[in-house]
Amino acid sequence: MSLDVSPALLEKAERGEVDEAEFVDCVRTSLPYAWEMISSLVDRLGADGGPFADNQVPPPDEQARGQLLRALASDAIRGALQRHFGVRLAFQNCHRVAVFPLGEEADQAHARFTSVRGQLLNQSPLLRDC
């Protein structure tokens, strides 16, 4: 299971009454490594003001790696995180997460980061089995 869903939140979902803030809180508590990674990148983006902020350090263990994969592979989780933080997320390999501000200039940086060329340039034999 990718999220630790409380019985109360599950009951709300069964009734069709899910507040996105409650969902985001569930993500925060269920996937703390992924949350901290994204949150710290958002903070760095705000402080540095560059076209994007990214992480290039592999997760410390398989549990952390799994959290990143679950957070970014799920359309619902990824979308909720993007809306919550007001950014666009991108993901390469097993650990390279990037956050982009919203806007036309950032769209170009995002397109370069997520391009076929960008993916190929981000390859490393050290990451073959990540």
UniProtKB/TrEMBL annotation:
It holds the Pfam family KH_NucS_shadow. It comes from the Bacteria. NCBIfam families: SCO5389_fam. This is SCO5389 family protein.
